[in-house]
C-alpha cells in the first residue's frame, strides 16, 4: 500500500495540516504581541518612599499575571536559579481589588480598569516594608498561570549619598558573607525598627550613608544567626563628614526549622513572605534569623540549638497584605520551638484571608496628614500586631483583616525621628466583607511629665527605664530612662496616664516595682514632682518549677506580686529554680500563662506569706502537662467527623456555648473565634478533603 492514499492517511494529513496552520496563526498572533515588562523608575535610592509603576503589555484580555521580585546576586539583570524570591503578588487584567466598594490600595491591581491585554499597576513602597528597600540589585519578573516567564526587568536600589556613614565587613566563622542585609537602627529609639539598609558585596563589605547621629547596626542573611542583643552592642556615633567603622559577625546555622505558609482554606502555598524567628531574652530576642517562603510557600529557617519563637515581622505583614492575607493568628503564629537537640520539620502556618478592610487617614494635631507612620492592628488581647501598614504621602493607610474585633493605633516614634507619640488605641468591630473608615490623630508632645525614681532610702535610681501608658494597661505612648540623679523628663500629651518603671530592670537591682502612679495631663501644662519609690527587698522567695512528672522547667517566664501593689517580673533559671526579692506581706507567685501554654503546660500560682528579714519555705510550682487537643475534634472523641462540624456550627451560630477545649478544637484558623469558615474546614477534614 506504500505510495497510495488511504482514508486513514488522508485524515492524518488533513489533521497535520490543520495543526500546522493553527501553529502558524498562533505564532503570528503572539510573536507580534510579545509581552514586555517595564519598571519606572528603574533605579531609586534606599530612602525613596514613592511609587513604582510596573507595566506589561502583549497579554490576552483578562489574563492573570504573577509579578515577582528577586535578588539579582550576579547583577546580570535576569532571574537565575538559586536567586531568592522576595516579593510576589497576582494582578488580573482589568481588575481593581475592592472591599465593599472601597479600593484597597495595599493590594496591587490594574489601574486602567480595562481588560485590554495590558496591566499597569502602582506599587507604593511605603506599603512594602523596609527589607524591600535595602540597597542592592534586583529583578522584577512576570509569569503566566503555568509559571512560564512573560518578561523581566532589572531594578536597582542605590544607597543615598551622605557625607558620612558606617562601613565594615560581615563574616561568619572566618568566611565573608556576601549579599547579607546590613540594617541601621536609631539608638535613641527603644525597640524601633530599621530605618535603612544595604547589602554586602562579594567580599562581604558594606558602606551605608546616614545623617550624623547615634546608631546600632545588625546583619542578617538566611542560613545565619544574628546577634540582636542591642543592649550588649556598641552604639556607633557618626560624626559629620566621617565614616565610622564596624565589622559584624554572624553564626552559621546548625539546626533547621522547616515548614510552609499556606492558605487557611485551599491549602496552597503563599510565596515571597519573610519569616523571623528569635531566641532568648525577656524584653525581646537576643538571637534572630530570617527566611523567605519559596515559590511553593515552603521555608527553611537556619538556627542554632536552643528554644526559639516565631516572630511577626512588619515586612511579613506587608508581603501577606499584598496577596490579600493576614499573618496567622493564635498560638501557632508565635509558637515556641525547642530545637535544642534536633531539627524541627513540618511547621505549618495558615494565612488568613483578609475579607474586611479598615482604612483611614493619620493626621497630626493640626489636621495635616502624616506620611510614613506605622499603623498597627491587633486582635483583642494579642501582644503583637497581626497587620501593619505605613501611611503614604497623603497619610492614608489600608489594613485588610478577617472579620472580628480589632485594636488599631499608630506606633510610637513613627515616622522615625519626628517626635510623634503615636495615637490612642482605638477599638473597632468589623464584619465580613465590610470596609470601615477610621481616622487617627498622631500627637506630638504638648506637655512634660517630670519626676524622680528613688529607693526606700531616698537614694536615686539611675538609668532605669520608665513607661507612660493608659491606666489599666495598654501600649505605652512615651518612654525614657532616669538620669544619674534619678530624675526623668518624659514628653506626653493630654489625658489620663500611668507611669511605671521596668520591672525586670528593677529586679536586677534588688528592687521591687511599686504600684502604678496615675497622673492627669492637660495639654500645655507640665506636671512636676512625680515620685516613684522602689522598695528594697527584705526577704527572698525561693523555689522550683516542675511539671507533673517532676521534670524541671527551665527559663519559663514568671511573676510575683503582693497585696500592696509591688510587682516582680522574672524568669526561672535553666535548672527550673528561682529566687526573687520580696518585702513583708502576702505574695502570689506564678508562671506566665502564655509561656506555659506554648510549652504545652497548665498554669500554677502559690500564695506565700513573707515576714521582713525572714525567708519563707521554698515554693514548688507544679504545672500539669496539657492534654493535646486534636484540631477539629470538637466532641473530644479522638476523631474528626461530621458530628464535630455540626457541633462547631451550633457554636458559630451561638446556639450552644462551647467549653474552652471545644472552642480551641473548633477554631481551626486560630483567630480566637469560631465562625462558619472554621465549620467548613472541619467538614473538609471529616470528608478527607484536607489533611489534619
Describe the structure.
It is a single chain. This protein is 11% helix and 41% strand. Strands 11, 12, 15, 17, 19, 20, 22, 23, 25 and 27 form a 10-stranded mixed beta sheet that branches. Strands 2-10-9-4-5 form a 5-stranded mixed beta sheet, with no helix packed on it. A 4-stranded antiparallel beta sheet has the order 14-13-16-18, with no helix packed on it. The protein is mainly beta and 692 residues long. The longest helix is centred in the first third of the chain and has 25 residues, at 7-31. Helix 5 packs antiparallel against helix 7 (676-686). It folds into 7 domains: 36-158, Neocarzinostatin-like (Immunoglobulin-like, Sandwich), CATH 2.60.40.230; 165-251, Immunoglobulin-like (Sandwich); 253-353, Immunoglobulins (Immunoglobulin-like); 356-441, Sandwich (Immunoglobulin-like); 447-536, Carboxypeptidase-like, regulatory domain (Immunoglobulin-like), CATH 2.60.40.1120; 539-623, Carboxypeptidase-like, regulatory domain (Immunoglobulin-like), CATH 2.60.40; 628-692, Dockerin domain (Type 1 dockerin domain), CATH 1.10.1330. Residues 1-33 have low confidence and may be disordered.
Amino acid at each position: 500500500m506504500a505510495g497510495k492514499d488511504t482514508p486513514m492517511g488522508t485524515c492524518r494529513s488533513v489533521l497535520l495540516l490543520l495543526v500546522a496552520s493553527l501553529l502558524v496563526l498562533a505564532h503570528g498572533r503572539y510573536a507580534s504581541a510579545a509581552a514586555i515588562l517595564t519598571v519606572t523608575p528603574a533605579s531609586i535610592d534606599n530612602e525613596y518612599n514613592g511609587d513604582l509603576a510596573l507595566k506589561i503589555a502583549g497579554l490576552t484580555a483578562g489574563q492573570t499575571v504573577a509579578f515577582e521580585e528577586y535578588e539579582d546576586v550576579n547583577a546580570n539583570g535576569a532571574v537565575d536559579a538559586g536567586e531568592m524570591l522576595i516579593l510576589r503578588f497576582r494582578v488580573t487584567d482589568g481588575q481593581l481589588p475592592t472591599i465593599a466598594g472601597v479600593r484597597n490600595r495595599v493590594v496591587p491591581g490594574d489601574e486602567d480598569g480595562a481588560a485590554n491585554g495590558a496591566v499597569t499597576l502602582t506599587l507604593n513602597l511605603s506599603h512594602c516594608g523596609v527589607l524591600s528597600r535595602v540597597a542592592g540589585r534586583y529583578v522584577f519578573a512576570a509569569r503566566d498561570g503555568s509559571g512560564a516567564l512573560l518578561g523581566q526587568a532589572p531594578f536597582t536600589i542605590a544607597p543615598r549619598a551622605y557625607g558620612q556613614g558606617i562601613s565594615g565587613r560581615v563574616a561568619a566563622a572566618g568566611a565573608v558573607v556576601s549579599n547579607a542585609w546590613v540594617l541601621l537602627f536609631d539608638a535613641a529609639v527603644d525597640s524601633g525598627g530599621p530605618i535603612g539598609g544595604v547589602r554586602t558585596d562579594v567580599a562581604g563589605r558594606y558602606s551605608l550613608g546616614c545623617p550624623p547621629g547615634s546608631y546600632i547596626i545588625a546583619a542578617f542573611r538566611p542560613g545565619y544567626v544574628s546577634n540582636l542583643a542591642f543592649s550588649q552592642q556598641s552604639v556607633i556615633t557618626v560624626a559629620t563628614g566621617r565614616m565610622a567603622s564596624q565589622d559584624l559577625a554572624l553564626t552559621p546555622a546548625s539546626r533547621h526549622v522547616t515548614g510552609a505558609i499556606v492558605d487557611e482554606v485551599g491549602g496552597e502555598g503563599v510565596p515571597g513572605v519573610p519569616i523571623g524567628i528569635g531566641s532568648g531574652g525577656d524584653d525581646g530576642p537576643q538571637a534572630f534569623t530570617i527566611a523567605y517562603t519559596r515559590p511553593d510557600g515552603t521555608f527553611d529557617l537556619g538556627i542554632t540549638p536552643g528554644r526559639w519563637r516565631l516572630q511577626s515581622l512588619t515586612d511579613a505583614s506587608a508581603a501577606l497584605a499584598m496577596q490579600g492575607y493576614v499573618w496567622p493568628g493564635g498560638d501557632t503564629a508565635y509558637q515556641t520551638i525547642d530545637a535544642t537537640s534536633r531539627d524541627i520539620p513540618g511547621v505549618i502556618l495558615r494565612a488568613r484571608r483578609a475579607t474586611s478592610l479598615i482604612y483611614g487617614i493619620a493626621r497630626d494635631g493640626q489636621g495635616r496628614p502624616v506620611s510614613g507612620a506605622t499603623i498597627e492592628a491587633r486582635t483583642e488581647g494579642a501582644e503583637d500586631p497581626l497587620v501593619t501598614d505605613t501611611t503614604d504621602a497623603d497619610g492614608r493607610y489600608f489594613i485588610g483583616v478577617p472579620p472580628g474585633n480589632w485594636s488599631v493605633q499608630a506606633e510610637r516614634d513613627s515616622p522615625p525621628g519626628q517626635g510623634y507619640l503615636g495615637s490612642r488605641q482605638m477599638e473597632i468591630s468589623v464584619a465580613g466583607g465590610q470596609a470601615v473608615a477610621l481616622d487617627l490623630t498622631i500627637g506630638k508632645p504638648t506637655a512634660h511629665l517630670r519626676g524622680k525614681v528613688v529607693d526606700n532610702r531616698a537614694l536615686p535610681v539611675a538609668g532605669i527605664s520608665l513607661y507612660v501608658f493608659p491606666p489599666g494597661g495598654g501600649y505605652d505612648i512615651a518612654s525614657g530612662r532616669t538620669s544619674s540623679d534619678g530624675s526623668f523628663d518624659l514628653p506626653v500629651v493630654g489625658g489620663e496616664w500611668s507611669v511605671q518603671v521596668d520591672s525586670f530592670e528593677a529586679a536586677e537591682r534588688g528592687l521591687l516595682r511599686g504600684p502604678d502612679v496615675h497622673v492627669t495631663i492637660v495639654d500645655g501644662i507640665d506636671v512636676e514632682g512625680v515620685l516613684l519609690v522602689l522598695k528594697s527587698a527584705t526577704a527572698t522567695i525561693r523555689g522550683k518549677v516542675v511539671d507533673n512528672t517532676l521534670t524541671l522547667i527551665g527559663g519559663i517566664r514568671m511573676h510575683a506580686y503582693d497585696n500592696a501593689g509591688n510587682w516582680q517580673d522574672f524568669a526561672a533559671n535553666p535548672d527550673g529554680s528561682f529566687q526573687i526579692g520580696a518585702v513583708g506581706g502576702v505574695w502570689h507567685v506564678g508562671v506566665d500563662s502564655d509561656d506555659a501554654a506554648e510549652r504545652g503546660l497548665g498554669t500554677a500560682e502559690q500564695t506565700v506569706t513573707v515576714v521582713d528579714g525572714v525567708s519563707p519555705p521554698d515554693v514548688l510550682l507544679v504545672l500539669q502537662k496539657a492534654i493535646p487537643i486534636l484540631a477539629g475534634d470538637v466532641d473530644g472523641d479522638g476523631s474528626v467527623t461530621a458530628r464535630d462540624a455540626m457541633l462547631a456550627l451550633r457554636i458559630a451560630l451561638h446556639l450552644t456555648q462551647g467549653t474552652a477545649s471545644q472552642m480551641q478544637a473548633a477554631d481551626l484558623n486560630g483567630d480566637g473565634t469560631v465562625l462558619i469558615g472554621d465549620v467548613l474546614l472541619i467538614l473538609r477534614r471529616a470528608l478527607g478533603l484536607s489533611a489534619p
